[in-house]
Design brief:
0% strand, mainly alpha
């Protein structure tokens, strides 16, 4: 065990997630959103994509693509 009081692993060049967290970035490399609206705008392409996939799946299960 290390003598580091925070018990966090030491930061080496392969620990990019720790370096990004210290720099104020999330796991995708974007800066942290200050508000809920900003977070929603950052994730809007992912939300839209998910809705499109869900709509396609429902249509396929309903038999619209025969």
């Amino acid at each position: 065990m290390s003598s580091n009081p925070s018990h966090a692993p030491s930061l080496v060049e392969t620990d990019q997630a720790y370096a990004d967290a210290d720099a104020g970035k999330d796991h995708m490399g974007r800066r942290h959103a200050a508000t809920i609206g900003e977070a929603f705008r950052q994730d809007l392409p992912w939300i839209a994509g998910l809705l499109i996939v869900v709509a396609f799946d429902i249509a396929a299960l309903a038999g619209y693509f025969r």
